[in-house]
Amino acid sequence: MLHYLLKRLLSLAVSLVVASLVIFLALEVVPGDPAAYMLGINAQEDTLAALREELGLNGSVLERYLSWAGGLLQGDFGTSYTYRTPVAEMIGERLWISLPLALYALTLSTLIAFPAGIWAASKRGSPVDVTVMGVTQLGVAIPNFWFAMLMVLVFAINLRWFSAGGFVGWDAGFLLAMKSLTLPAIALALPQASILARVMRSSLLDTLSEDFIRTARAKGLSKRQALWRHALRNALIPVLTIIGLQFSFLLAGAIIIENVFFLPGLGRLVFQSISARDLIVVESVVMLLVFAVIVVNFLVDLAYAIVDPRLRGRR
Amino acid sequence: MRNLWLGGVLTAIFAGMAVLSFLWTPYDPTVLDIANKIKTPTLAHPLGTDHFGRDILSMIMVGARTSIAVALVAVGIGMGLGVPLGLTAAARKGGLLDELIMRGNDLVFAFPSLLIAIMITAVFGASAVNAIIAIGIFNIPVFARLTRSGALSLWTRDYVMAARVAGKGATRISIEHILPNVTNLLIVQGTIQFSLGILAEAGLSYVGLGAQPPTASWGRMLADSQTMISFAPHMALFPGLAILLTVLGLNLMGDGLRDLFDPKLRRARS
Predict the structure, then answer these.
(1) Measured distance CA(A298)–CA(A19) in Å, rounded
(2) What is the ipTM of this complex?
(3) pLDDT, tens digit, for every residue of B89-125?
(4) C-alpha–C-alpha distance, residues B142 and B197, integer Å
(5) Which residues of chain B neighbour A157 with C-beta distances below 8 Å?
Protein backbone atom coordinates (compact mmCIF):
# COMPACT_ATOMS: atom_id res chain seq x y z
CA MET A 1 0.00 0.00 0.00
CA LEU A 2 2.82 2.41 0.90
CA HIS A 3 4.58 1.67 -2.38
CA TYR A 4 1.33 2.27 -4.26
CA LEU A 5 0.73 5.51 -2.39
CA LEU A 6 4.23 6.83 -3.12
CA LYS A 7 3.91 5.95 -6.78
CA ARG A 8 0.58 7.72 -7.04
CA LEU A 9 1.89 10.76 -5.15
CA LEU A 10 4.82 11.04 -7.53
CA SER A 11 2.52 10.84 -10.54
CA LEU A 12 0.26 13.45 -8.92
CA ALA A 13 3.20 15.84 -8.52
CA VAL A 14 4.33 15.28 -12.12
CA SER A 15 0.79 15.87 -13.44
CA LEU A 16 0.49 19.12 -11.51
CA VAL A 17 3.84 20.43 -12.73
CA VAL A 18 3.12 19.52 -16.36
CA ALA A 19 -0.39 20.99 -16.19
CA SER A 20 0.95 24.24 -14.73
CA LEU A 21 3.58 24.39 -17.48
CA VAL A 22 0.95 23.87 -20.17
CA ILE A 23 -1.29 26.59 -18.76
CA PHE A 24 1.60 29.01 -18.24
CA LEU A 25 3.03 28.50 -21.73
CA ALA A 26 -0.39 28.64 -23.39
CA LEU A 27 -1.08 32.04 -21.88
CA GLU A 28 2.51 33.23 -22.30
CA VAL A 29 2.26 33.27 -26.09
CA VAL A 30 -0.39 35.99 -25.85
CA PRO A 31 0.66 39.05 -27.77
CA GLY A 32 0.54 42.36 -25.94
CA ASP A 33 2.18 43.82 -22.89
CA PRO A 34 0.12 43.83 -19.66
CA ALA A 35 2.02 46.87 -18.43
CA ALA A 36 1.14 48.84 -21.57
CA TYR A 37 -2.44 47.67 -21.20
CA MET A 38 -2.67 48.81 -17.59
CA LEU A 39 -1.14 52.24 -18.18
CA GLY A 40 -2.85 53.05 -21.48
CA ILE A 41 -1.38 54.34 -24.73
CA ASN A 42 -0.02 57.60 -23.35
CA ALA A 43 2.27 55.99 -20.79
CA GLN A 44 5.86 57.16 -20.53
CA GLU A 45 8.54 54.64 -21.40
CA ASP A 46 10.17 54.79 -17.96
CA THR A 47 6.84 54.32 -16.15
CA LEU A 48 6.19 51.27 -18.32
CA ALA A 49 9.62 49.89 -17.54
CA ALA A 50 9.06 50.42 -13.82
CA LEU A 51 5.70 48.66 -13.92
CA ARG A 52 7.15 45.78 -15.94
CA GLU A 53 9.81 45.44 -13.30
CA GLU A 54 7.18 45.53 -10.55
CA LEU A 55 5.04 42.86 -12.25
CA GLY A 56 8.11 40.72 -12.87
CA LEU A 57 7.67 40.76 -16.64
CA ASN A 58 11.33 41.32 -17.43
CA GLY A 59 12.77 37.91 -16.60
CA SER A 60 13.15 34.98 -18.98
CA VAL A 61 10.21 32.63 -19.52
CA LEU A 62 11.74 30.10 -17.14
CA GLU A 63 12.29 32.71 -14.42
CA ARG A 64 8.75 33.94 -14.74
CA TYR A 65 7.36 30.40 -14.64
CA LEU A 66 9.35 29.60 -11.52
CA SER A 67 8.25 32.76 -9.77
CA TRP A 68 4.61 32.18 -10.79
CA ALA A 69 4.62 28.50 -9.75
CA GLY A 70 6.56 29.31 -6.57
CA GLY A 71 3.94 31.93 -5.75
CA LEU A 72 1.12 29.43 -6.36
CA LEU A 73 2.69 27.05 -3.87
CA GLN A 74 2.61 29.77 -1.22
CA GLY A 75 -0.92 30.82 -2.10
CA ASP A 76 0.30 33.96 -3.89
CA PHE A 77 -1.41 34.09 -7.29
CA GLY A 78 0.01 37.48 -8.26
CA THR A 79 -1.77 40.82 -8.69
CA SER A 80 -4.68 41.43 -11.04
CA TYR A 81 -3.72 43.69 -13.95
CA THR A 82 -7.08 45.46 -13.93
CA TYR A 83 -8.12 45.63 -10.30
CA ARG A 84 -4.61 45.84 -8.79
CA THR A 85 -5.76 43.53 -5.99
CA PRO A 86 -4.21 40.16 -5.12
CA VAL A 87 -5.68 37.46 -7.38
CA ALA A 88 -5.79 35.03 -4.46
CA GLU A 89 -8.21 37.34 -2.64
CA MET A 90 -10.45 37.74 -5.69
CA ILE A 91 -10.55 33.98 -6.23
CA GLY A 92 -11.11 33.33 -2.54
CA GLU A 93 -14.24 35.50 -2.51
CA ARG A 94 -15.67 33.89 -5.64
CA LEU A 95 -14.79 30.38 -4.56
CA TRP A 96 -17.23 30.74 -1.68
CA ILE A 97 -20.01 30.69 -4.25
CA SER A 98 -18.71 28.27 -6.88
CA LEU A 99 -17.48 25.58 -4.49
CA PRO A 100 -20.64 25.35 -2.36
CA LEU A 101 -22.66 25.39 -5.58
CA ALA A 102 -20.71 22.44 -7.01
CA LEU A 103 -20.95 20.52 -3.73
CA TYR A 104 -24.67 21.27 -3.43
CA ALA A 105 -25.19 19.98 -6.99
CA LEU A 106 -23.08 16.90 -6.34
CA THR A 107 -25.13 16.10 -3.23
CA LEU A 108 -28.41 16.56 -5.10
CA SER A 109 -27.16 14.48 -8.01
CA THR A 110 -26.14 11.60 -5.72
CA LEU A 111 -29.36 11.80 -3.71
CA ILE A 112 -31.43 11.55 -6.89
CA ALA A 113 -29.28 9.06 -8.77
CA PHE A 114 -28.76 6.40 -6.11
CA PRO A 115 -32.43 5.64 -5.37
CA ALA A 116 -33.39 5.99 -9.04
CA GLY A 117 -30.62 3.69 -10.26
CA ILE A 118 -31.14 1.09 -7.54
CA TRP A 119 -34.90 1.13 -8.00
CA ALA A 120 -34.63 0.75 -11.77
CA ALA A 121 -32.12 -2.10 -11.48
CA SER A 122 -34.14 -3.99 -8.88
CA LYS A 123 -37.26 -3.78 -11.03
CA ARG A 124 -35.60 -4.33 -14.37
CA GLY A 125 -37.98 -4.19 -17.33
CA SER A 126 -40.86 -2.87 -15.21
CA PRO A 127 -42.63 0.44 -15.87
CA VAL A 128 -40.44 1.98 -13.13
CA ASP A 129 -37.30 0.97 -15.02
CA VAL A 130 -38.66 2.22 -18.32
CA THR A 131 -39.62 5.56 -16.74
CA VAL A 132 -36.24 6.04 -15.07
CA MET A 133 -34.43 5.19 -18.31
CA GLY A 134 -36.67 7.53 -20.31
CA VAL A 135 -36.35 10.46 -17.93
CA THR A 136 -32.58 10.04 -17.65
CA GLN A 137 -32.30 9.85 -21.45
CA LEU A 138 -33.90 13.30 -21.53
CA GLY A 139 -31.79 14.50 -18.61
CA VAL A 140 -28.58 13.60 -20.43
CA ALA A 141 -29.68 15.39 -23.60
CA ILE A 142 -30.96 18.64 -22.07
CA PRO A 143 -28.53 21.59 -22.08
CA ASN A 144 -28.33 22.49 -18.40
CA PHE A 145 -28.25 26.25 -18.97
CA TRP A 146 -31.47 26.01 -20.97
CA PHE A 147 -33.07 23.92 -18.24
CA ALA A 148 -31.91 26.64 -15.82
CA MET A 149 -33.63 29.32 -17.92
CA LEU A 150 -36.86 27.32 -17.97
CA MET A 151 -36.70 26.94 -14.19
CA VAL A 152 -36.23 30.70 -13.83
CA LEU A 153 -39.32 31.19 -16.00
CA VAL A 154 -41.45 28.79 -13.97
CA PHE A 155 -40.19 29.04 -10.38
CA ALA A 156 -38.90 32.62 -10.28
CA ILE A 157 -40.97 34.62 -12.75
CA ASN A 158 -44.32 32.80 -12.63
CA LEU A 159 -44.50 31.17 -9.21
CA ARG A 160 -42.14 33.60 -7.47
CA TRP A 161 -40.78 30.89 -5.18
CA PHE A 162 -37.15 31.80 -5.84
CA SER A 163 -35.35 34.91 -7.01
CA ALA A 164 -34.40 34.93 -10.68
CA GLY A 165 -30.75 35.45 -9.96
CA GLY A 166 -28.06 37.02 -7.81
CA PHE A 167 -26.65 35.80 -4.55
CA VAL A 168 -27.78 37.15 -1.18
CA GLY A 169 -24.41 36.42 0.43
CA TRP A 170 -23.55 34.09 3.29
CA ASP A 171 -24.08 36.97 5.74
CA ALA A 172 -27.81 36.79 5.03
CA GLY A 173 -27.88 33.44 6.78
CA PHE A 174 -27.15 29.90 5.66
CA LEU A 175 -30.69 29.00 4.62
CA LEU A 176 -31.27 32.13 2.54
CA ALA A 177 -27.89 31.71 0.88
CA MET A 178 -28.62 28.07 0.09
CA LYS A 179 -32.00 29.11 -1.25
CA SER A 180 -30.39 31.41 -3.79
CA LEU A 181 -28.14 28.53 -4.85
CA THR A 182 -30.99 26.02 -5.13
CA LEU A 183 -32.16 26.59 -8.73
CA PRO A 184 -28.56 26.74 -10.03
CA ALA A 185 -27.71 23.55 -8.13
CA ILE A 186 -30.74 21.71 -9.55
CA ALA A 187 -29.84 22.82 -13.06
CA LEU A 188 -26.27 21.62 -12.60
CA ALA A 189 -27.34 18.38 -10.95
CA LEU A 190 -29.94 17.20 -13.45
CA PRO A 191 -27.68 15.96 -16.28
CA GLN A 192 -25.16 14.56 -13.80
CA ALA A 193 -27.89 12.76 -11.85
CA SER A 194 -29.15 11.23 -15.09
CA ILE A 195 -25.71 9.92 -16.02
CA LEU A 196 -25.08 8.67 -12.50
CA ALA A 197 -28.45 6.90 -12.26
CA ARG A 198 -27.74 5.09 -15.54
CA VAL A 199 -24.28 4.05 -14.40
CA MET A 200 -25.66 2.90 -11.05
CA ARG A 201 -28.34 0.85 -12.77
CA SER A 202 -26.08 -0.85 -15.28
CA SER A 203 -23.34 -1.49 -12.75
CA LEU A 204 -25.86 -3.03 -10.35
CA LEU A 205 -27.35 -5.17 -13.12
CA ASP A 206 -23.85 -6.42 -13.98
CA THR A 207 -23.15 -7.32 -10.38
CA LEU A 208 -26.53 -8.96 -9.89
CA SER A 209 -25.75 -11.42 -12.67
CA GLU A 210 -22.51 -12.59 -11.03
CA ASP A 211 -21.92 -15.96 -9.44
CA PHE A 212 -21.62 -14.74 -5.87
CA ILE A 213 -25.10 -13.29 -6.02
CA ARG A 214 -26.41 -16.63 -7.21
CA THR A 215 -24.60 -18.26 -4.31
CA ALA A 216 -26.11 -15.78 -1.89
CA ARG A 217 -29.56 -16.46 -3.31
CA ALA A 218 -28.94 -20.23 -3.11
CA LYS A 219 -28.05 -19.78 0.56
CA GLY A 220 -31.57 -18.49 1.03
CA LEU A 221 -31.21 -14.73 0.85
CA SER A 222 -34.10 -12.91 -0.74
CA LYS A 223 -33.48 -10.88 -3.87
CA ARG A 224 -33.68 -7.70 -1.84
CA GLN A 225 -31.23 -8.97 0.79
CA ALA A 226 -28.76 -10.08 -1.89
CA LEU A 227 -28.98 -6.67 -3.51
CA TRP A 228 -28.46 -4.62 -0.36
CA ARG A 229 -25.92 -6.88 1.37
CA HIS A 230 -23.76 -8.02 -1.53
CA ALA A 231 -24.47 -6.42 -4.87
CA LEU A 232 -24.61 -2.74 -3.95
CA ARG A 233 -21.14 -2.52 -2.43
CA ASN A 234 -19.60 -4.28 -5.41
CA ALA A 235 -21.47 -2.12 -7.87
CA LEU A 236 -20.14 1.08 -6.33
CA ILE A 237 -16.70 1.17 -7.99
CA PRO A 238 -17.74 2.50 -11.41
CA VAL A 239 -20.20 4.80 -9.62
CA LEU A 240 -17.37 6.26 -7.53
CA THR A 241 -15.35 6.97 -10.68
CA ILE A 242 -18.21 8.89 -12.18
CA ILE A 243 -18.80 10.86 -8.98
CA GLY A 244 -15.12 11.80 -8.97
CA LEU A 245 -15.23 12.88 -12.59
CA GLN A 246 -18.49 14.74 -12.02
CA PHE A 247 -17.10 16.94 -9.31
CA SER A 248 -14.68 18.49 -11.75
CA PHE A 249 -17.33 18.82 -14.43
CA LEU A 250 -19.64 20.44 -11.91
CA LEU A 251 -17.00 22.96 -10.92
CA ALA A 252 -16.39 23.82 -14.57
CA GLY A 253 -20.10 23.61 -15.41
CA ALA A 254 -20.82 26.03 -12.60
CA ILE A 255 -19.04 28.64 -14.75
CA ILE A 256 -21.85 28.48 -17.31
CA ILE A 257 -24.73 28.15 -14.86
CA GLU A 258 -23.46 31.13 -12.84
CA ASN A 259 -24.01 33.14 -16.00
CA VAL A 260 -27.71 32.24 -16.10
CA PHE A 261 -28.29 33.29 -12.50
CA PHE A 262 -25.89 36.24 -12.40
CA LEU A 263 -24.00 34.62 -9.54
CA PRO A 264 -20.71 36.39 -8.78
CA GLY A 265 -18.67 33.17 -8.76
CA LEU A 266 -15.50 32.01 -10.48
CA GLY A 267 -17.28 31.90 -13.84
CA ARG A 268 -18.17 35.56 -13.79
CA LEU A 269 -14.63 36.37 -12.69
CA VAL A 270 -13.16 34.42 -15.60
CA PHE A 271 -15.38 36.02 -18.23
CA GLN A 272 -14.78 39.51 -16.87
CA SER A 273 -11.05 38.81 -16.88
CA ILE A 274 -11.12 37.53 -20.46
CA SER A 275 -12.81 40.67 -21.72
CA ALA A 276 -10.49 42.87 -19.64
CA ARG A 277 -7.49 40.81 -20.86
CA ASP A 278 -6.57 40.26 -17.24
CA LEU A 279 -4.70 37.10 -18.12
CA ILE A 280 -3.14 36.46 -14.76
CA VAL A 281 -6.62 35.99 -13.30
CA VAL A 282 -7.63 33.64 -16.16
CA GLU A 283 -4.39 31.73 -15.68
CA SER A 284 -4.97 31.33 -11.96
CA VAL A 285 -8.61 30.27 -12.18
CA VAL A 286 -7.85 27.70 -14.90
CA MET A 287 -4.94 26.39 -12.85
CA LEU A 288 -7.10 26.14 -9.76
CA LEU A 289 -9.81 24.19 -11.58
CA VAL A 290 -7.33 21.84 -13.28
CA PHE A 291 -5.63 21.38 -9.92
CA ALA A 292 -9.00 20.42 -8.42
CA VAL A 293 -9.66 17.89 -11.21
CA ILE A 294 -6.26 16.24 -10.82
CA VAL A 295 -6.44 16.08 -7.04
CA VAL A 296 -10.00 14.74 -7.01
CA ASN A 297 -9.03 12.00 -9.48
CA PHE A 298 -6.06 11.16 -7.30
CA LEU A 299 -8.35 10.87 -4.26
CA VAL A 300 -10.77 8.66 -6.21
CA ASP A 301 -7.88 6.36 -7.19
CA LEU A 302 -6.86 6.23 -3.58
CA ALA A 303 -10.41 5.47 -2.49
CA TYR A 304 -10.46 2.50 -4.89
CA ALA A 305 -7.28 1.08 -3.48
CA ILE A 306 -8.83 1.23 -0.04
CA VAL A 307 -12.15 -0.26 -1.16
CA ASP A 308 -10.66 -2.90 -3.45
CA PRO A 309 -7.17 -4.25 -2.70
CA ARG A 310 -7.07 -5.98 -6.09
CA LEU A 311 -6.70 -2.61 -7.81
CA ARG A 312 -3.50 -1.67 -5.98
CA GLY A 313 -1.32 -3.65 -8.35
CA ARG A 314 -2.86 -2.13 -11.45
CA ARG A 315 -1.37 0.72 -13.52
CA MET B 1 -33.93 -1.23 -32.95
CA ARG B 2 -36.64 1.22 -31.95
CA ASN B 3 -33.94 3.49 -30.49
CA LEU B 4 -31.94 3.38 -33.67
CA TRP B 5 -34.94 4.33 -35.79
CA LEU B 6 -36.17 7.11 -33.54
CA GLY B 7 -32.65 8.48 -33.12
CA GLY B 8 -31.92 8.19 -36.80
CA VAL B 9 -35.10 10.06 -37.75
CA LEU B 10 -34.47 12.88 -35.24
CA THR B 11 -30.87 13.25 -36.39
CA ALA B 12 -31.89 13.15 -40.04
CA ILE B 13 -34.46 15.92 -39.48
CA PHE B 14 -31.89 18.32 -38.04
CA ALA B 15 -29.16 17.31 -40.47
CA GLY B 16 -31.69 17.81 -43.28
CA MET B 17 -32.58 21.25 -41.94
CA ALA B 18 -28.90 22.18 -41.89
CA VAL B 19 -28.39 21.04 -45.48
CA LEU B 20 -31.62 22.67 -46.66
CA SER B 21 -30.57 25.97 -45.06
CA PHE B 22 -27.78 26.28 -47.64
CA LEU B 23 -30.41 26.37 -50.40
CA TRP B 24 -33.47 27.83 -48.76
CA THR B 25 -34.74 29.29 -45.51
CA PRO B 26 -38.23 30.77 -45.00
CA TYR B 27 -36.64 34.20 -44.38
CA ASP B 28 -33.15 35.62 -44.47
CA PRO B 29 -32.00 35.13 -40.86
CA THR B 30 -29.61 38.09 -41.05
CA VAL B 31 -32.20 40.66 -42.16
CA LEU B 32 -33.71 42.73 -39.37
CA ASP B 33 -37.43 43.51 -39.45
CA ILE B 34 -38.06 45.65 -36.40
CA ALA B 35 -41.76 46.14 -37.28
CA ASN B 36 -42.28 42.41 -36.67
CA LYS B 37 -40.15 42.00 -33.56
CA ILE B 38 -40.97 39.48 -30.78
CA LYS B 39 -43.96 37.93 -32.53
CA THR B 40 -45.25 34.69 -31.04
CA PRO B 41 -45.68 31.81 -33.53
CA THR B 42 -48.02 32.55 -36.44
CA LEU B 43 -48.57 31.01 -39.86
CA ALA B 44 -46.13 33.45 -41.41
CA HIS B 45 -43.52 32.75 -38.72
CA PRO B 46 -44.16 29.18 -37.42
CA LEU B 47 -41.73 29.63 -34.49
CA GLY B 48 -42.19 33.39 -34.10
CA THR B 49 -39.62 36.17 -34.42
CA ASP B 50 -36.87 37.46 -32.13
CA HIS B 51 -36.18 40.92 -30.72
CA PHE B 52 -34.86 42.10 -34.10
CA GLY B 53 -37.81 40.62 -36.01
CA ARG B 54 -35.69 37.78 -37.43
CA ASP B 55 -37.53 34.54 -38.20
CA ILE B 56 -36.68 32.00 -35.48
CA LEU B 57 -37.25 28.94 -37.70
CA SER B 58 -34.76 30.29 -40.25
CA MET B 59 -32.25 31.02 -37.49
CA ILE B 60 -32.64 27.50 -36.08
CA MET B 61 -32.07 26.03 -39.53
CA VAL B 62 -28.88 28.02 -40.02
CA GLY B 63 -27.90 27.37 -36.39
CA ALA B 64 -28.14 23.62 -37.05
CA ARG B 65 -25.36 24.13 -39.58
CA THR B 66 -23.07 25.71 -36.98
CA SER B 67 -23.81 23.10 -34.31
CA ILE B 68 -23.38 20.13 -36.61
CA ALA B 69 -20.27 21.52 -38.32
CA VAL B 70 -18.53 22.34 -35.03
CA ALA B 71 -19.36 19.00 -33.40
CA LEU B 72 -18.56 16.97 -36.51
CA VAL B 73 -15.15 18.54 -37.11
CA ALA B 74 -14.38 18.18 -33.39
CA VAL B 75 -15.15 14.46 -33.61
CA GLY B 76 -12.92 14.32 -36.70
CA ILE B 77 -10.05 15.92 -34.78
CA GLY B 78 -10.57 13.56 -31.85
CA MET B 79 -10.65 10.48 -34.06
CA GLY B 80 -7.91 11.64 -36.43
CA LEU B 81 -5.43 12.10 -33.60
CA GLY B 82 -6.84 9.82 -30.91
CA VAL B 83 -7.18 6.62 -32.95
CA PRO B 84 -3.55 6.53 -34.21
CA LEU B 85 -2.36 7.33 -30.68
CA GLY B 86 -4.48 4.53 -29.23
CA LEU B 87 -3.32 2.04 -31.88
CA THR B 88 0.32 2.98 -31.25
CA ALA B 89 -0.07 2.69 -27.49
CA ALA B 90 -1.66 -0.75 -27.82
CA ALA B 91 1.01 -1.97 -30.23
CA ARG B 92 3.72 -0.85 -27.81
CA LYS B 93 1.89 -1.97 -24.68
CA GLY B 94 3.91 -1.47 -21.53
CA GLY B 95 6.63 0.40 -23.41
CA LEU B 96 7.79 3.95 -22.94
CA LEU B 97 5.65 5.20 -25.84
CA ASP B 98 2.52 3.60 -24.37
CA GLU B 99 3.27 5.16 -20.99
CA LEU B 100 3.88 8.59 -22.55
CA ILE B 101 0.70 8.50 -24.60
CA MET B 102 -1.44 7.38 -21.70
CA ARG B 103 0.01 9.95 -19.26
CA GLY B 104 -0.48 12.62 -21.90
CA ASN B 105 -4.07 11.48 -22.18
CA ASP B 106 -4.56 11.74 -18.44
CA LEU B 107 -3.23 15.26 -18.58
CA VAL B 108 -5.58 16.40 -21.36
CA PHE B 109 -8.41 14.69 -19.50
CA ALA B 110 -7.83 17.06 -16.58
CA PHE B 111 -8.86 19.99 -18.81
CA PRO B 112 -12.63 20.06 -19.34
CA SER B 113 -13.42 21.41 -22.83
CA LEU B 114 -14.75 24.59 -21.25
CA LEU B 115 -11.37 25.34 -19.69
CA ILE B 116 -9.55 24.65 -22.95
CA ALA B 117 -11.98 27.03 -24.64
CA ILE B 118 -11.39 29.66 -21.98
CA MET B 119 -7.63 29.46 -22.49
CA ILE B 120 -7.88 29.54 -26.28
CA THR B 121 -10.31 32.45 -26.15
CA ALA B 122 -8.13 34.36 -23.73
CA VAL B 123 -5.28 34.04 -26.22
CA PHE B 124 -6.91 34.22 -29.65
CA GLY B 125 -10.39 35.62 -29.00
CA ALA B 126 -13.74 33.87 -29.39
CA SER B 127 -14.80 32.15 -32.63
CA ALA B 128 -16.48 28.99 -33.89
CA VAL B 129 -13.07 27.69 -35.00
CA ASN B 130 -11.72 28.03 -31.48
CA ALA B 131 -14.76 26.17 -30.16
CA ILE B 132 -13.98 23.37 -32.63
CA ILE B 133 -10.37 23.21 -31.47
CA ALA B 134 -11.36 23.18 -27.79
CA ILE B 135 -13.94 20.41 -28.21
CA GLY B 136 -11.62 18.54 -30.59
CA ILE B 137 -8.73 18.53 -28.10
CA PHE B 138 -11.12 17.26 -25.45
CA ASN B 139 -12.12 14.39 -27.78
CA ILE B 140 -8.57 13.15 -28.42
CA PRO B 141 -8.02 11.23 -25.16
CA VAL B 142 -11.54 9.79 -25.35
CA PHE B 143 -10.77 8.09 -28.67
CA ALA B 144 -7.19 7.24 -27.73
CA ARG B 145 -8.30 5.37 -24.62
CA LEU B 146 -11.14 3.59 -26.35
CA THR B 147 -8.96 2.53 -29.28
CA ARG B 148 -6.19 1.34 -26.98
CA SER B 149 -8.46 -0.78 -24.80
CA GLY B 150 -10.27 -2.20 -27.83
CA ALA B 151 -6.99 -2.91 -29.59
CA LEU B 152 -5.40 -4.53 -26.53
CA SER B 153 -8.06 -7.21 -26.44
CA LEU B 154 -7.49 -7.90 -30.14
CA TRP B 155 -3.70 -8.24 -29.95
CA THR B 156 -4.06 -11.58 -28.16
CA ARG B 157 -6.29 -13.06 -30.86
CA ASP B 158 -5.12 -15.95 -33.02
CA TYR B 159 -5.46 -14.11 -36.31
CA VAL B 160 -3.18 -11.34 -35.07
CA MET B 161 -0.71 -13.99 -33.96
CA ALA B 162 -0.94 -15.54 -37.42
CA ALA B 163 -0.25 -12.15 -39.02
CA ARG B 164 2.80 -11.69 -36.82
CA VAL B 165 4.09 -15.14 -37.70
CA ALA B 166 3.57 -14.23 -41.36
CA GLY B 167 6.02 -11.40 -40.74
CA LYS B 168 3.75 -8.37 -40.70
CA GLY B 169 4.99 -5.42 -38.66
CA ALA B 170 3.09 -3.77 -35.81
CA THR B 171 1.98 -0.83 -37.94
CA ARG B 172 0.61 -3.04 -40.69
CA ILE B 173 -1.19 -5.30 -38.23
CA SER B 174 -2.68 -2.24 -36.51
CA ILE B 175 -4.01 -0.88 -39.80
CA GLU B 176 -5.04 -4.12 -41.50
CA HIS B 177 -6.31 -6.22 -38.60
CA ILE B 178 -6.88 -4.12 -35.49
CA LEU B 179 -8.45 -0.97 -36.93
CA PRO B 180 -11.27 -2.69 -38.87
CA ASN B 181 -12.23 -4.55 -35.71
CA VAL B 182 -12.47 -1.48 -33.48
CA THR B 183 -14.50 0.47 -36.05
CA ASN B 184 -17.81 -0.48 -34.43
CA LEU B 185 -16.62 0.82 -31.08
CA LEU B 186 -15.45 4.01 -32.75
CA ILE B 187 -18.74 4.59 -34.54
CA VAL B 188 -20.72 4.24 -31.31
CA GLN B 189 -18.34 6.52 -29.39
CA GLY B 190 -18.27 8.93 -32.32
CA THR B 191 -22.04 9.31 -32.09
CA ILE B 192 -21.82 10.01 -28.37
CA GLN B 193 -18.99 12.53 -28.77
CA PHE B 194 -20.96 14.15 -31.57
CA SER B 195 -23.89 14.72 -29.23
CA LEU B 196 -21.59 15.94 -26.44
CA GLY B 197 -19.99 18.27 -28.98
CA ILE B 198 -23.37 19.79 -29.81
CA LEU B 199 -24.03 20.41 -26.12
CA ALA B 200 -20.54 21.85 -25.65
CA GLU B 201 -20.85 24.13 -28.68
CA ALA B 202 -24.19 25.42 -27.39
CA GLY B 203 -22.68 26.05 -23.95
CA LEU B 204 -19.64 27.84 -25.37
CA SER B 205 -21.72 30.01 -27.69
CA TYR B 206 -24.10 30.76 -24.83
CA VAL B 207 -21.29 32.25 -22.72
CA GLY B 208 -19.84 34.04 -25.75
CA LEU B 209 -16.83 31.77 -26.33
CA GLY B 210 -18.16 30.19 -29.52
CA ALA B 211 -19.62 31.41 -32.79
CA GLN B 212 -19.76 35.20 -33.05
CA PRO B 213 -22.39 37.34 -34.80
CA PRO B 214 -23.57 37.25 -37.51
CA THR B 215 -23.09 33.44 -37.50
CA ALA B 216 -26.36 31.99 -36.21
CA SER B 217 -25.93 29.56 -33.34
CA TRP B 218 -28.39 27.89 -30.99
CA GLY B 219 -26.34 28.77 -27.93
CA ARG B 220 -26.23 32.47 -28.80
CA MET B 221 -29.95 32.52 -29.58
CA LEU B 222 -30.50 31.30 -26.02
CA ALA B 223 -28.12 33.91 -24.62
CA ASP B 224 -30.02 36.64 -26.52
CA SER B 225 -33.37 35.37 -25.29
CA GLN B 226 -32.40 35.24 -21.63
CA THR B 227 -33.24 38.79 -20.63
CA MET B 228 -36.53 38.61 -22.52
CA ILE B 229 -37.70 35.28 -21.17
CA SER B 230 -40.46 36.80 -19.02
CA PHE B 231 -42.32 38.33 -21.98
CA ALA B 232 -40.96 36.31 -24.94
CA PRO B 233 -40.50 32.73 -23.70
CA HIS B 234 -40.84 31.38 -27.26
CA MET B 235 -37.46 32.90 -28.07
CA ALA B 236 -35.87 30.62 -25.47
CA LEU B 237 -38.09 27.61 -26.01
CA PHE B 238 -37.36 26.68 -29.63
CA PRO B 239 -33.55 26.88 -29.79
CA GLY B 240 -33.41 24.87 -26.56
CA LEU B 241 -35.76 22.25 -27.98
CA ALA B 242 -33.62 22.06 -31.10
CA ILE B 243 -30.54 21.27 -28.99
CA LEU B 244 -32.43 18.80 -26.81
CA LEU B 245 -33.93 16.89 -29.76
CA THR B 246 -30.68 16.75 -31.74
CA VAL B 247 -28.70 15.49 -28.75
CA LEU B 248 -31.47 13.06 -27.83
CA GLY B 249 -31.54 11.76 -31.40
CA LEU B 250 -27.79 11.21 -31.49
CA ASN B 251 -27.80 9.49 -28.09
CA LEU B 252 -30.63 7.17 -29.10
CA MET B 253 -28.80 6.42 -32.31
CA GLY B 254 -25.62 5.65 -30.36
CA ASP B 255 -27.52 3.29 -28.07
CA GLY B 256 -29.21 1.65 -31.03
CA LEU B 257 -25.93 1.20 -32.89
CA ARG B 258 -24.33 -0.33 -29.82
CA ASP B 259 -27.17 -2.83 -29.55
CA LEU B 260 -26.88 -3.57 -33.23
CA PHE B 261 -23.14 -4.20 -33.09
CA ASP B 262 -23.05 -6.02 -29.79
CA PRO B 263 -26.26 -7.74 -28.72
CA LYS B 264 -24.57 -8.88 -25.50
CA LEU B 265 -24.53 -5.31 -24.26
CA ARG B 266 -28.26 -4.99 -24.61
CA ARG B 267 -28.66 -6.50 -21.17
CA ALA B 268 -27.14 -3.68 -19.17
CA ARG B 269 -26.37 -0.57 -21.05
CA SER B 270 -25.69 2.67 -19.29
Answers:
(1) 14
(2) 0.90
(3) 999 988 899 989 988 888 888 888 888 888 888 788 8
(4) 13
(5) 229-230
The 10s digit of each residue's pLDDT in B159-208 is 998 998 999 999 999 999 999 999 999 999 999 999 999 999 999 999 88
What is the least distance, in Å, from the CA of A221 to any CA of chain B?
23
Amino acid letter at A300?
V
Using the Cβ of B144 and the Cβ atoms of chain A, whether some distance falls under 8 Å is answered with no
B38 touches chain A (CB under 8 A): no
Q: Which residues of B touch A23 (CB under 8 A)?
A: 119
Mean pLDDT over B203-222 rounds to: 90
For chain A, say whether B123 makes contact (Cβ under 8 Å). Answer: yes
Partner-chain residue, chosen from A153, A255, A256, that has the shortest CB–CB distance to B233:
A153
**Is residue A307 scored above 80 in pLDDT?**
no
